[in-house]
Design goal:
GO terms for molecular function: ABC-type oligopeptide transporter activity; ATP binding; ATP hydrolysis activity. By secondary structure, the protein is an alpha/beta fold. It contains 22 helices and 12 strands. The longest helix is centred in the N-terminal third of the chain and has 50 residues. Bound molecules: adenosine-5'-triphosphate.
């Protein structure tokens, strides 16, 4: 909440003026029943037409003033609310960028999107309505009661009984419905999560003919939400009949008490009408107040959800050293007894990993699915930190190197090819901000993407749609490789990023990297023997453990797991030939 108020403080003046103008509007409303009473008592009873006309004009003036003040108040409150939401969204976005991969894994992408969008919208609505109503509604309720006393203290006693009774009804219903509304909000979250998952995976859903079962699951979730909303709606709906009963009983009491006084000549008919009008104003405001409280409770829950993300702080210290560049180019990599868990109580994803790769060498990493290959490479640019042991580049622990420097010397091509909406040139410049067109073309050439880029005819102005929808899987992969190559990094990591390429293109890519990129350390993560076989050193991973390392030939003769992988992908003759070394 503190954070919310600190945003609102930026518009302190507007935050004060909005409720004050709303109160001014209410003040004008409070005079209306008195004017109407006078119109009845003097204008109608005395048949004074000119008085009636003057009072009608006065009513119009009161309405116009009320309208002007209301518009001003709404302008201020909308300004504070929208700017508060904008600042909160900007800060939250910036904050999420600072979180570690582990923290983002823990929070989950769906919930971060919900918090950035629907939760902040709810906060915006809450701030808007709070500024407009938090002073106005109580002011009208108590103002109407005071005005009723000035009109006639005797009949006004009805208000003393009715108002507390109305408050009890409104707050009892709120007390019951507020926790239910919170549950509704949570259920809405779940529906949003499954909607997002389904829409993103719509092709997979169809490919596996899961439409019917997905529809059924969605139906169940949606009807659960429907039932809960209907239930809470029914309880909320009790608010109107109950408050109307109290108000109508109050009006009956006013008419009964007032009627006797009218007979006795102590009260006028106009004054009775004024009391009835005040009672109606109170009713309307109490209902507005109840709705405001519901909205505020939702807004507060949303603000807390946003705050929960702000409270996740990346305590990881950034290093202070620059990148330890080697004179020869590339960087040596050392893992020393590295242990790593994704979650505290889970099995380690990496267990006592120790190896050395020379600067400028090619390192292959092979192993079954889930064996820890990607995890190893993710520790090099510090996407994750080792729980124990160390990762060093050119002899310097990565934790001591400034993250920005570290990452600007490493080119990562992730397993999943991700491109962004924009031109090809813009996407390539993610690798190197100031890359020239020629440098970009060279990278595209190394990544074996030149042919298809040329065939599209737009050169570097080729428009790439959101997530690269207008490209094939293989084309996207080649462009993500080109994006990493543009940077001319010291370490180039290809994490299974040639999986959608045919064998010939995969081989041409590796050859081009070797011949055109100078001395760099290249890491090739793959499940294909053909991709890693010519590497200077191959690491064989099995269930988080390093079960073998050496060249293709050494491993064929020494590592059982590597032999099994080779046997599943090569003929016995090929294996035999490779063992002997006649490539
Ligand atoms: N973000 C994550 N949170 C929790 N566990 C994870 C996460 N990423 C990977 N794991 C687990 O860590 C282990 C190693 O995963 P990793 O991605 O390194 O395997 P891999 O060898 O690269 O597999 P593949 O070839 O299928 O990509 C697996 O058991 C996996 O389930």
């Amino acid at each position: 909440m503190k954070r919310l108020f600190s945003y609102m403080k930026v518009h302190l003046l507007e935050s004060i003026l909005a409720p004050l103008f709303k109160m001014l509007e209410a003040t004008f409303e409070l005079f209306v029943p008195i004017v109407v009473a006078n119109m009845i008592d003097r204008g109608v009873s005395g048949k004074d037409v000119s008085y009636l006309i003057r009072m009608s004009i006065l009513l119009l003036v009161l309405a116009a003033c009320g309208l002007v003040f209301s518009i001003i108040a709404q302008y201020f409150s909308a300004k504070v609310a929208t700017h508060t939401a904008q600042m909160m969204r900007d800060d939250l976005f910036a904050h999420i960028q600072t979180l570690s991969w582990r923290q983002i894994d823990g929070l989950g992408t769906s919930t971060l999107i919900t918090r950035m969008t629907s939760d902040i919208n709810t906060v915006q609505n809450g701030v808007n309505m709070f500024l407009r109503l938090f002073l106005r509604s109580p002011f009208v309720v108590f103002g109407a009661m005071i005005m009723a006393f000035t009109v006639d203290p005797h009949t006004a006693m009805t208000f003393v009984v009715a108002i507390p009774l109305l408050f009890v009804i409104v707050f009892a219903i709120l007390l019951i419905t507020m926790p239910l509304y919170r549950k509704v909000q949570k259920q809405l979250d779940a529906i949003m999560r499954s909607t997002r998952e389904n829409l993103l995976g719509v092709r997979v859903v169809r490919a596996f003919n899961r439409q019917e079962s997905e529809k059924k699951t969605f139906d169940e979730e949606a009807s659960g939400l429907y039932d809960r909303q209907i239930f809470v709606g029914k309880i909320s709906a009790l608010l109107n009949p109950l408050t109307y009963v109290v108000i109508n009983l109050g009006i009956v009491a006013i008419l009964w008490l007032g009627g006797q006084q009218v007979y006795a000549g102590a009260l006028t008919q106009g004054k009775i009408i004024a009391q009835v009008n005040y009672m109606s104003q109170i009713l309307v405001e109490l209902i507005k107040l109840a709705n405001l409280i519901i909205l505020l409770s939702r807004a507060m829950a949303s603000a807390r959800r946003v705050d929960d993300v702000f409270r996740v702080v990346n305590g990881r210290k950034d290093g202070t050293a620059g990148f330890p560049e080697s004179e020869t180019g590339g960087a040596s990599i050392d893992f020393s007894h590295v242990l790593f868990h994704y979650e505290k109580d889970a099995e380690p994803a990496l267990c006592d990993i120790t190896f050395h790769a020379d600067a400028g060498s090619t390192l292959g990493i092979i192993g079954g699915t889930g064996s820890g290959k990607s995890t190893i490479v993710n520790l090099i640019p510090r996407f994750y930190d080792a729980d124990s042991g160390s990762v060093s580049l050119n002899g310097t622990d990565v934790r001591t190197i400034r993250e920005k420097d570290l990452r600007s010397h490493i080119g990562v091509v992730p397993q999943k090819a991700v491109l962004f909406h924009g031109t090809l040139r813009e996407n390539m410049k993610w690798g190197q901000k100031d890359a020239s067109d020629q440098e970009i073309y060279e990278a595209i050439d190394i990544a074996q993407a030149k042919e298809f880029v040329d065939s599209k005819g737009d050169g570097l102005d080729l428009m790439i749609e959101q997530e690269g929808r207008n490209l094939s899987g293989g084309q996207k992969q080649r462009l993500t490789i080109a994006r990493a190559v543009v940077r001319r990094p010291d370490i180039l990591i290809l994490d299974d990023s040639a999986s959608a390429l045919d064998f010939a293109t995969d081989a041409a890519l590796r050859k081009a990297i070797r011949s055109q990129m100078g001395k760099r350390t290249v890491i090739l993560v793959s499940q294909r023997v053909s991709t890693v076989r010519s590497a200077d050193q191959i690491l064989v991973m099995d269930d988080g453990k390093l079960v073998g390392h050496g060249t293709h030939r050494e491993l064929l003769n020494t590592c059982r797991e590597y032999q099994e992988i080779c046997e599943s992908q090569m003929t016995a003759e090929e294996i035999q030939a490779d063992r002997k070394g006649d490539d």
